[in-house]
Amino acid sequence: ENFCVCSTFISERVEVERDKMSPSKKKKGGEWKGKLYFNPDAKVGKDEGINLSHDELQSKLASLVDIGENINEVWLYTTPLSGWQLTHALLYHAYIVLETNDYFWSLEKNADELVLQRSKVGNNVKEYLHGKKRPVLLLSSKPSQHKHQWSDLRLKNLFDHLFKKRELSKTYNWLNDNCQDFANRIYDYISNNKRDPNQGYFGPSRRVKCV
User: Please, which domain of life does this record's source organism belong to (predicted)?
Assistant: First the structure.
């Protein structure tokens, strides 16, 4: 069973550490904005982005990025809730990293919103969130790669999927819809589906998973 990043089972020390690292400083579910925060040029020490609503996933976002870009690879990464953890065990944050032809992207669910980051530099989205270094395990120097797969989809397919599944309407919930749940279902969608240019249908891919 997955545990929410901000679970009430987390010790007070973890709560305090996470509060220091979280830009929003919101430690519990129920404060969901229903927005996607998009930073088109993620940089270390800098965070400049815009908030997009559900409807803007298909309208405004399409004018900000090249939705025809191919998603070449997808990874699922995990980080601890604070830097003093030795293992991920039950308490960890999960998020997606994508590589397209021109950019690297990260996509994740936090307590108040979805966050989409883009950068020419992979580490700017893989190792940083809102311009700040992501926490890592005590004996590690970088986030942990949990899964990896090649992809046949385009960015448009992903954004359409977020729209059709109404991901921005799914309030963050500790036990039923947390960062781990979101990251896993997005990873599964990208890795298990392929484009059919003739029918516009996205069915299961026969490609062998590379985990």
Answer: Eukaryota
